[in-house]
Amino acid sequence: MVEISLKNKMKLPALGFGTFQIPPDQCEIAVRQALEAGYRLIDTAWSYQNEKAVGRAIRESGIPRDEIFVTTKVYMMGADGYAYTKKAFEEALQRLGLDYIDMYMIHMPFADYYGAWRAMEELYKQGRICVLGVANFSSARLVDFSRNVEIMPQVDQLERHPFYQRREEEKWLQKLGVQPQAWAPFAEGMNGMFQNPILQRIARAHKKTLAQVILRWETQTGWAAVVKSAHEDRIRENFDCWDFQMTPDELAAISHLDLGKPQMLDSNDPVEVNRCYDFLEHPVVTSLHNEKA
Fold first, then answer.
1. Coil, strand, or helix at residue 185?
2. Whole-angstrom distance, CA of residue 32 vs CA of residue 181
3. Cα dihedral 98, 103, 108, 109 sign
4. DSSP readout, 108-129?
5. Does residue 162 register a pLDDT over 70?
6. 118: Cβ–Cβ under 8 A, 6 or more apart, which residues?
7. pTM of the predicted protein model
8. 3-class SS of residue 81
9. What is the mean pLDDT of residues 239-256?
10. Which of 3, 95, 165, 253 satisfies CB 3.0 to 4.6 Å to 11 for a cystine?
11. Is 114 known to be catalytic?
């Protein structure tokens, strides 16, 4: 597995397995298959409602705990982010069945995320979190963070794919010493990504799948990535993306696919912000939110 050195000297697997929208009954199987295929970063979140399944798969894999990098996330901390995050972290450990978390992230740049960050800094200093991360934070939010926090995030997880390449934001992340990690690298196939003739041509040239080309593009351009599938053949296929390298001309061709705007989530869109809060009002989510363990 290729690893990326973070600012705090921790190693981040360049390609991780994501579990967004995988129901618990399927998630345990998928995570076990991912670990067997060679993935060593498993990404979950409170809002995915499958942390228990992830934990079971990790424990039953037989792989030493220190060889698996586990990410989970705290979601929408309310008015007292500090107290909420302290409680949420303990509950995440219980659901996962772990005694530390490799990377703990603030899932959205909403609610009292500064209070949440203070709690996370304390847990980091105690060695209970190895890497501090945020997700969906724009470069502007990170610049504001740099003026107001003691410890900067080591990782920012962002929507990133050939149709939304975020090159200007990437420059700011580099300046701030924050490693970008892509979620939705395939943009769920939107805008005909899997039929794109440029990506198809590059895939044919390297005798790889189009998905493998996209994942290799992510890592070859300096990003880490998290990729999801519930199908064993695709889980293995996606991981088999390390034995080729694109040419400068091929990278330049992909750069021209950039549409310059998000396809999945725009955290600056009021409708999207409302949707993120409305998620908490769903009865199933409300029940999970009140769960003690």
1. coil
2. 22
3. positive
4. SS-SSHHHHHHHHHHHHHTTSE
5. yes
6. 81, 82
7. 0.95
8. helix
9. 98
10. 3
11. no
